[in-house]
Amino acid sequence: MSYFLPHLPSGWHVDEAIKSEEDRVVVIRFGHDWDPQCMTMDETLYGISEKVQNFAVVYLVDITDVPDFNKMYELYDPCTVMFFYRNKHIMIDLGTGNNNKINWAMDNKQELIDIIETVYRGASKGRGLVVSPKDYSTRYRY
Amino acid sequence: MSKDPKNKLAFLSMPAPASYVAGLGRGASGFTTRSDIGPAREGPSEEVIAEARAKRGEEEQPDPEQFQDPDNEYGLFAGMTYEADDEEADRIYEQVDEAMDSRRKIRREAREQDELNKHRAERPKIQQQFADLKRGLSSVTDEEWESIPEVGNLTRRKKRRGENDRTYVVPDSVIVGDRSKGEFESALDAGQQANGGFETPATDGSGTLTNFVEIGQARDKLLSIKLDQLSSSTASSSGLSTSIDPKGYLTSLSSIQIKSDAEIGDIKRARMLFDSLVKSNPKHAPGWIAAACLEEHAGRMVAARKIIKMGCEQCPKSEDVWLEAARLHNNDDAKVILANAVQHVGQSVKIWLAAADLEHDVKAKKRVLRKALEHIPTSVRLWKETVNLESSAPDARILLARAVEVIPASVELWLALARLETPDKAKSVLNKARKSVPTSHEIWIAAGRLLEQEATREDTGKTEDKRAKELEAVDKTIEAGVKELRRHQVLLTRDQWLKEAERCESEGSPRTCEAIVKATVGMELEEDEDRYDTWVSDAQSALGRGHIGTARAILAYALKFFPERRDLWRLAADLEKTHGTPSSLDALLSRAVEHVPNAEVLWLMRAKERWMQGDVAGAREVLVKAFDTNPESEQIWLAAVKLEAENGELGVARELLGRARSVADTERIWMKSAVFERQQSQYTSALQTLSTAIQKFPKFPKLYMIQGQIYAQHLKNVPAARTAFANGIKACPKEPTLWILASRLEEHDGKSIKARALLEKARLAVPKDERLWAESARVEERSSGAGSAQAKSMLARALQECPTSGLLWSMSIWAEPRPTRKSRSVDALKKSSDDPLIVCTVARLFWQERKIEKAREWFRRAVKADKDLGDVWGWWLKFEKQHGTEEYQEIVKRECESAEPRHGEVWQSVNKDDRNVGKRVREVLELVCEALA
């Protein structure tokens, strides 16, 4: 399903994508299209991208083609999803200990929508850290 | 970030710029979650940036501090090598230092030790102070060391002591409450049992009962007392309590004095004071009166009467005491008291008058007064009272005759007698009076008035000559009077005389007034200039007080002295115009032009007056005479032309203009000729005239305007008009009207852009001109509709340039949407300090809201602020046509006619239109009213 979502081919494009949105959350999935985890995630993302298009936009980035952010954003997991709002990285407390990103593949569309909506509501109020509606500490363990 | 939503995502299809450093462009910063899996780095790394720089071809800038010695950064020889000779030099220096140090070393050290010891002795070290104790520590055992108590925390704040351990006595109520806390009351108490349950105890007849019946009765009683007071105070007149005046009831209630404690205390003290006063000084009448008054004030009439009675006994010679006594008693007693008083103080007029006042019957009054006159025959007051009581004239005359015999010096009595006598006898009476009182000016004036009355009486059938002669006598009398008075050292000032004159006028003797003015207005004034100014100001002040006759007389007298002063003539003419008849005005003006033949204004005024009376031939005659004396006056020429033109004598008018051009060669005459030609639709000749005129007077803007208008409106020759205006603008760049006309021409031609440019230039040439700004805003409005953004911004700029302009403010008010207009208008009123245009606009706002009365009031205010503004009149008439009655419309028209407005944008354009030549103000007003939108 990654085929239907827009890809960002370079670091510049990533930056532009983040800067271009004035009032929508920019959701970026870092990973590889061929990765099974990413495939799951992309499936979910594609499923919701239409539904959240009023307040969020989804992009995919291949971390092999675009290695620029690997160090900066610690992109060492097979699948990472990060949120930006008006050129600001929005952190989210998922209960996993890593508030910077979602680094597992989600398969529940409603949960993802809820997360993005929470991010949008918090960020538009000026928050830098929002609390996820659901605790994922049991779901994902390090 | 691109703002355009269409292009927002355009970057997706764009190639990335070469050697872009990811994250740098947006200032991204990284994070470290787990140091075991990644470096703690923020943003793009140094190496990445350097690499990108190299790729981009930027040279790395060399660091200037790169080769700096880290140990010795700034030494002079920091970069040199340390050689053998350097080492030797250092050694020699050290030896020198050592040698210097060893000199007198022992003594120096000894001295230093000394100083140190001394210092220590003065301020020993703490260690030394406790040295002996410290030594004793060696004997302390381990147990003793252990049992040394710990030092407590001395820094801790002192705890508030006893907050918790302070005890209080428990109040009884708590104990009792606590005792009955758990109890239940299961039995009714005695009261409840007696009254059958839980009724309120108020009905059981105890002392706390509120008896409403009694309260009501008390109130009734109070009211009845008040009513009694009222009825007793009015009882003397009617004796009925129903005669209470319902309106005066409340006010009289509030005037009833209720004495407070303080007042009563005051009264007590005052009573004591007065008591001691009358005791210590019983012959002092005011003391008695005051004491009586105090008692009266305190409401104790009996005591007051008693005191005043004693006062009368003690001071029988004081009339005041007697009068006070009479006042305090009722009518009959007062009579007795005054009868007593007369025996003691028979010469007191006051007491006699009071006694007369006490009598209700006229006969009795007369009797009292006669008696009084027997006692005091020289009292003018008594005589007057007596005469006033007489109802028949002969009796009064006899009384007065007797009175003047007894008191020959009383002017009043003489005058009264003269008034009662027949005219012939009055004369002799006045003569007698004059002899007995030679110092009275009233008698002289009365004589003058008598003469005037005689002269102007209708029924005698005198001829005019005789009447005039008799009136001359008035002058003579007053003149003789003034002389006579001066002989007797009676010197009234001019102002006093003028006041007398004014009084004469208001009492209906204009001739006497005139005579007084003639005889006296020249007094006290020596210098010519002084005289002139004083007379003018006198006349104006008399006019201001509404004494037209006096003013006229003063001016007439002044004109006799200064026949060559044209402003004086003008003043007199204005007076006649407003207050006199047309014939008197004409007579005055004819005299005026005889004396001051050069005064064009007077000539024009005379001609206009004649013309207004419908006497065209007379007007013409006047103008002919005026030409004889003032051949060069353009005003007279133009007046003549106007007269002829409006009376249909076009040929004559044209001829006149031709002659005027040759005789009085002024720009206005040339302009009027052109206008005249244009009005007759002789456009070619008008243009010819104009071109000649422009050669003669190239700086006169109106010529260009007329030229341009003829081309544009009548000949439809836009290019020619454009050149005319362009020439005009070149010749007179400071004339806003020319600029506006030029811009309108362009706009009319469908070239709004050009009009705009022209106006912009105009604004540069004539800065801060409200008309130019208004025109610019209007151009915007016309081209893009009212209230458009351009028009609004133009108006805003205009208001910045001319913040006090009423015209611009009113435009900006109308440009607002309706709800905000009101607040805008308040701003405007404040900023433009009640400009009549703004006031008119406010009136129109009220009109829109159907607040008719308010709108009318504001229109009136606007008109009052500036009568010359025709547009306001137009708006008002329009308003009245919609909401007012016929009468209101008529009032507006009439007032407008008298104001003769000449300005206002619409008014001027309508008034100067060729089609409306020769229309009256009233017609123009109607046209303006229609033209206003």
Automatic annotation (TrEMBL), chain A:
A Gene Ontology cellular-component term: spliceosomal complex
Entries under SMART domains matching the protein: DIM1 (SM01410)
Main location: nucleus
GO biological process, one term: mRNA splicing, via spliceosome
Entry keywords, A to Z: mRNA processing, mRNA splicing, Nucleus
InterPro entries in alphabetical order: Dim1, Thioredoxin-like_sf
Disulfide bonds: C38-C79
UniProt subcellular location: Nucleus
Similarity comment: Belongs to the DIM1 family.
General function of this protein: Essential role in pre-mRNA splicing. Also essential for entry into mitosis (G2/M progression) as well as for chromosome segregation during mitosis.
Record's protein name: Spliceosomal protein DIB1
Organism: Candolleomyces aberdarensis
UniProtKB/TrEMBL annotation, chain B:
SMART domains: HAT (SM00386)
GO CC, alphabetical: catalytic step 2 spliceosome; U4/U6 x U5 tri-snRNP complex
GO biological process: spliceosomal tri-snRNP complex assembly
Methyltransferase found in the keyword field: no
Record-linked SUPFAM superfamilies: TPR-like (SSF48452)
Keyword annotations: mRNA processing, mRNA splicing, Nucleus, Repeat
Keyword match Nucleus: yes
Region (Disordered): 23-73
Subcellular location: Nucleus
Every PRP1 splicing factor N-terminal domain range: 16-157
Compositionally biased intervals (Basic and acidic residues): 50-59
Domain of life according to the entry: Eukaryota
Coiled-coil residue spans: none
Composition-biased stretches (Acidic residues): 60-72
The protein's name: PRP1 splicing factor N-terminal domain-containing protein
Source organism per UniProt: Candolleomyces aberdarensis
Native organism taxonomy: Eukaryota, Fungi, Dikarya, Basidiomycota, Agaricomycotina
